[in-house]
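Our consortium's second objective concerns turning raw sequence data into structural hypotheses that experimental partners can test. To show how far this objective has progressed, the report includes one record in full. It was chosen at random from the queue rather than selected for favorable results. The single chain below, 171 residues long, was entered without modification.
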Amino acid sequence: MKKKVLLFVFLLAFGTVAMAQKYAFIDTEYVLENIPAYAAAQEQLDQISKQYQKELETMHAEIEQMYQDFQAEAVLLSEDMKRKREDVIISKEKNYKELQRKYFGREGDLFKKRQGLIKPIQDDVFNAVQELATEGSYAVIFDKAGSLTMLYTNPKFDLSDQVLQKLGYKN
């Protein structure tokens, strides 16, 4: 409902000005799916992610086994030995969480790798869209792959294939 109200307000406020403007849209998902370098980068990121995940799962299983062994042997251990074993388990858990953050955190290895592989491709797409907007005198180019809801789109205003051509790819 909010989207409809916002769309109505947008159309009402800018309706008279909008009549003189040119609008178009692209589908970035479609564009990126048709760029081989993007698919290769995604595959590489998936492989890295699986490798990291496997390493973390192995470490987690080791911690779980240590904890189970500790529980089974706790009645036989002195207080000093219990404390030492607990400290080792807690230390391993901290290492696990640090490694998890290092791999998958906001500034983790996977994020940095994604920035290095995907961002240049996205920048190329953005630059191609910008060139098309300038060449075609478009006021606005929407992305229908994003969260913007478009109930109807006329294919004649879809510039997705032109973006691919600008980047040197054929549909």
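The partners drew two points from this record. Helices lie at 2-18, 28-33, 36-73, 79-104, 109-136, 160-166. The mean pLDDT is 85. Both points have been shared with the crystallography group to help prioritize constructs.
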